[in-house]
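Quick illustration for those who missed Monday's session on complexes.
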Amino acid sequence: MSKHDAELRKKVETEIQKHKQIVEADTYRQNFHHMPPVGLMNDPNGFIQWKGVYHLFYQWMPFETAHGAKYWGHYTSEDLVNWKHEAVALTPSDWYDKDGVYSGSAIVHDDQLHLFYTGNIEGEHEPEAEYQCLAVSQDGIHFEKKGVLIETPKGYTGHFRDPKVWKNGDQWYMVVGAQTEDKQGKAVLFRSEDLQNWEHIGPIAGSKEGKLGEFGYMWECPDLFELDGADVLMVCPQGLEADGMDYANTYQSGYFVGKWDETAETFQHGDFRELDRGFEFYAPQTTRDEKGRRLLVGWMGVPDQYEQAHPTVENGWVHCLTIPRELKWNGERIIQTPVPELAHMRGPVLMHSSITIENDQKAVRGVQGRSVELNLDFESLEDMFAIELFQYASLSYKDRVVTLSRPHLEDRSKTEFRRVKLDEGLRNLRLFIDQSSLEIFINGGEEVFTSRIYPQAEEEHILFTSLGSTTFSVEKWDLKGYE
Ligand code: FRU
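Prediction with beta-D-fructofuranose bound:
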C-alpha cells in the first residue's frame, strides 16, 4: 500500500465516523438494500462469488453526495441476505486513476481475484483519458494494483470505460463501453490469452453498427453473457429520445439478444429492450454464481437525473443498489426474479385469499408496513385496479397499462409517472418495499419497476382501489434487514 493510498483510506474512515450517527438515524435509511455508509453510491462493480463468498463492490464517492473521484466500496455475503461492509477495495491513489477508480468487473484466475476497472483522468469538461487497469487479491479483501493494461485505441474520445471480462474456451475477452470521435456509442471487444496483453478487436455492437441506426452518443457498462441458450448484451446507451412509454429516464438500461459467434468474434442481435420501467435503475451488472445462476444487481439511480433532489442528500448520503435478482430467458424476454434466498428475510406470512373490491377503496387487514414483501395474484380484474402506497406513490392498472406515479422529486406539487403496456394483462404483482425504495415484479418478473420513494416517516398505510370488480389474493411478509 502506498503512502497516498493509506492517507486516502484514513480520510474515508474519518468521513464515515463523522457522519455515522446522522446517516444511521435517517428515516430513509434502507433496511435490506446496499447503501453507502456516507456519500454517493453508484454502479455495482466486480460482482462475483468466490470460494462460497459473494463479493459486491460499488462505485463510491465518500466525501460528497455528488460524482467525483470514485473509490470501490466493498460488501461481502455468504447467503445474499446478510452482508458485511468491508474495507475500501480500491482508492484513486495512482497517476492512472487519480480522478476515479471507475466501474469494472471481477474474475478468478490462478486462485486470485482479479478486478478490471477504469482509471479515470478528468479533463476540463470530459475525461481526458480512461485506462483499463487491473488489481489482484489473494484473500478477496486486500488488492494490489497492477497498473494500466489498455490505452484507448485511435478513433475514440476520452469516454472509454467499464471493462467486463469473461472466459470463452482458452481465451479471455473484455467488452468496454465507448464513444467514437463522431459521437457514437459502442461496445468494444478485446481478446487476451494471459490477462496481461490485450488485442483490440473492435466494436461488436453500437450506434450505427449493423442494422442499428443512431442509438446513443455513449454506451456505458456493457455486459455480454449466455442465458438459457441465448447470448445477451446488456448496455446503458446515453442519448436516446423518449418514445411513448419507452426511454422515459435520462439514460437507458437494457439489452440486445442475439448470437455471439466465437470464431468470427461478432455479435448479431435483435432490438433493444429496456430492463426496467421505474424511475431509478441503471448500470446493472451480472455474474454467474457457483450454483450456475445468472444474477443481476443494478444501481437504484440514474446519472444526471435530479440526483441532488433525493432528500437523503441532507443527511450526507444518496442512492442504493437493487436486491439481487436471478435472470432467465423465456425465448422472448429476460425474466427477473428476486433470488429465493431473500425468503430468509421473511417473518410469518399473512394471507388473504379471494378478496373482492368493487368500486371502492379499502385497506386489507394487516397489509401495511415499510419493510415488507407483498404478493398479489389476480383472479379477475374488470376495469381498473390500483395500490396506493403511504399516501405517496400509486401503482395502477387499466387498459393493459401499468402506471407508477409519485410526487415529482424536484417539485412535489407535480406528479411524475412511468408506464408499461402488458400485452397479456395483469396476473401477478410482487412488491419489495424498503424504507425508501420500491421494486415491483410484474407477472413473475416479465416487467420490473425500480424506484426510490420518500413518504412521511411513520406512514405505513397501503390501500387497494378497484373500479368495477377485482378479485385477488394477497400474501404479506415483514422483512428483516441485516446489520
Ligand atoms: C455509470 C458510470 C460508468 C462509470 C462510473 C463512474 O453510472 O458513469 O460509466 O464507470 O459510472 O462512477
